[in-house]
Amino acid sequence: MLDVIVDKVAQRATETAQTAAIGLGAGICLLVGSVFLAAAAWIFLLTITTALTACLIMGGVFFGAGLVMFAAIGIRSRRLQRQRELEMLRLEAQRKAQGPSGIESLIGIAVALINGFTAGKNTRL
Questions:
Q1: Residue 80 CB contacts under 8 Å (≥ 6 apart), including other chains
Q2: pLDDT in tens, the chain (125 residues)
Q3: CA–CA separation, 105 vs 78, rounded Å?
Q4: What would you report as the CA-atom Rg of the chain, rounded to the nearest whole angstrom?
Q5: Which pLDDT score, from 0 to 100, does residue 68 have?
Q6: What is the 3-state secondary structure (H, E, C) of 58-88?
Q7: Given 10, 34, 102, 110, which residue has the most CB atoms within 10 angstroms?
Q8: What is the SS3 string spanning the chain?
Q9: pTM above the 0.90 mark?
Q10: Backbone conformation region of residue 96, classed left if phi is above 0, alpha if psi is from -120 to 50, else beta
Q11: Nearest to residue 83, comparing CAs of 1, 15, 3?
Q12: pLDDT at site 82
């Protein structure tokens, strides 16, 4: 049982570390790229529109990109949660398939013994 808990903790730590590393790398790349793209888009928009329109367009683009990123994080976390739930169900089924062990088997034997004595006592005339 302790091995299962240690394995789950290790798996969750690995998933969290991978998510953090990917997120950090993606965040840095997006930050640098968005600065250059924003500067270029700003200069382009100023040449064809007013400053107010340029601000609205740039704000809308960045806001939309942020929403898409939050949606991607939510989808990934739900997928990982479903995987953890399926793993828990699999482990529970595996534990039940192995049959009772330890105190559970002793309780089962004691209950069977008491039931046997009661059945024997009830059959006497």
A1: 15
A2: 677 788 888 888 888 888 888 889 988 998 898 888 888 988 998 899 898 888 888 888 888 988 998 899 889 889 989 998 998 888 888 877 776 666 777 777 888 888 888 888 887 65
A3: 38
A4: 31
A5: 92
A6: HHHHHHHHHHHHHHHHHHHHHHHHHHHHHHH
A7: 34
A8: CHHHHHHHHHHHHHHHHHHHHHHHHHHHHHHHHHHHHHHHHHHHHHHHCCHHHHHHHHHHHHHHHHHHHHHHHHHHHHHHHHHHHHHHHHHHHHHHHCCCCCHHHHHHHHHHHHHHHHHHHHHCC
A9: no
A10: alpha
A11: 15
A12: 92
- For residue 48, give both structure tokens: 């064809």
Residues in the chain: 125
Residue bearing tokens 């939510």 = 74
